[in-house]
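FORM 12-B: Structure-to-Sequence Request
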């Protein structure tokens, strides 16, 4: 009977540990090489960081397709897409949603930039310190990385605000490009 009680207590503790929020690993620092990635998007089986060599990359992580904050953030990046393109920059979104969800999200919301599916082990979000676990469910944190044409992270945005984030990134991109 004592063994059963000990096993039950251990199981209860293990369950509680998995249900608690788990802190994400630290994101890569500004001035370091951006972690490589290769993920499917809504319209391509394979999108990698190497494909964007020579361009600025706005790599933004968001929790979930079709949610209010994520939709607002995506709309603002889409609204400003021509401004980014004029600055030799591409927008790339990443969440744990699958390719089919991304296809529906991009179609419904009129998004023309790449949205990548970091499913299963969330390796890319983990490499970028952009994973949050809440009540046993894993989501991408709302973090963004501004990567220069040589693959170096120039700006890190943690817990970005969807309503103003695109404007903030554009201003920082202007400032960084003015330094060169």
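FORM 12-B RESPONSE
SEQUENCE OUT:
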């Amino acid at each position: 009977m004592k063994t059963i009680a000990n096993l039950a207590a251990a199981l209860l503790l293990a369950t509680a540990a998995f249900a608690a929020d788990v802190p994400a690993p630290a994101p890569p620092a500004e001035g370091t090489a951006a972690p490589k990635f290769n993920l499917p998007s809504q319209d391509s089986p394979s999108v990698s960081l190497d494909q964007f060599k020579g361009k600025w990359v706005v790599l933004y992580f968001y929790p979930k397709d079709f949610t209010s904050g994520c939709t607002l953030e995506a709309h603002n990046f889409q609204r400003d897409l021509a401004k980014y393109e004029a600055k030799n920059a591409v927008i790339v979104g990443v969440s744990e949603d699958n390719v089919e969800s991304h296809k529906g999200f991009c179609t419904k919301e009129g998004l023309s930039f790449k949205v990548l599916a970091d499913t299963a082990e969330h390796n890319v979000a983990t490499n970028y310190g952009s994973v949050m676990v809440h009540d046993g469910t894993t989501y991408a944190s709302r973090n963004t990385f501004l990567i220069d044409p040589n693959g170096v992270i120039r700006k890190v945005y943690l817990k970005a605000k969807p309503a103003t984030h695109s404007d903030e990134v554009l201003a920082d991109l202007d400032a960084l490009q003015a330094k060169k």
